[in-house]
Amino acid sequence: MPRLGVNVxxxxxxxxxxxxxRPDPVWAALEAEAAGCEGIVCHLREDRRHIQDADLLILRxxxxxxxxxxxxxxxxxxxxxxxxKPDQATLVPERRRxxxxxxxxxxxxxxxxxxxxxHRLTKASIRVSLFLDPDPVQLKLARELGAAMVELHTGxxxxxxxxxxxxxxxARLKEAARAAHSLGLIVxxxxxxxxxxxxxxxxxxxxxxxxxxxxxxxxxxxxxxxQAVREMVRLVR
Length: 237
Ligand code: PXP
What we know:
The protein contains 11 helices and 8 strands. The chain is of the alpha/beta class. The N and C termini lie close together (about 5 Å). The structure holds pyridoxine-5'-phosphate (PXP).
């Protein structure tokens, strides 16, 4: 049964639209915990388009579940992470003009910056997860880099409209989860998951954590934030 990590970035996106204090991602995180989620996720982007440094500090102090900081391996952000000490850091590629994280990391290029980030974060007792496409080559390289965990990118599965490509993407996720687990990696998954497509991914036995943001924020407009989180907790279980 996977844990649900609720991503509160888009609560901050809405706040930033007017520059005031509301809606407050910290409030959303505390309510999500009360509604039964097992972790809170936020992404401190280099351009600070949604989550701000102060949000991260307050989240660290106030949440009682697990804090998963999504981040690029930019030296300034790595420094902040080592100071704030989230329970987990998920390293993602970050492009300035993207709407959201668009793909997994490509470890084949062998980035010294990435290797240094994995090392520094691990030394600071932060569990390091790498966000990867479900590709066996990438998983092996993640193990070699010393990551404890991988998050499988579910975007191809979530975006597939027709049944055949969706089945193929799901099969790829299942295979990758098995391969990662047998390499000794903890397995998470996320991106584009919603109330309709989450169940088959939640049923993959090796997947221990699902990280979901946008769908919950969108559902909250219809049923309220607490109810939207509760519904997702129920589906994930
Ligand atoms: N996991 C990772 C690594 C992400 O970058 C994102 C997007 O911030 C998510 C999960 C959540 O994706 P979504 O908002 O589509 O649920």
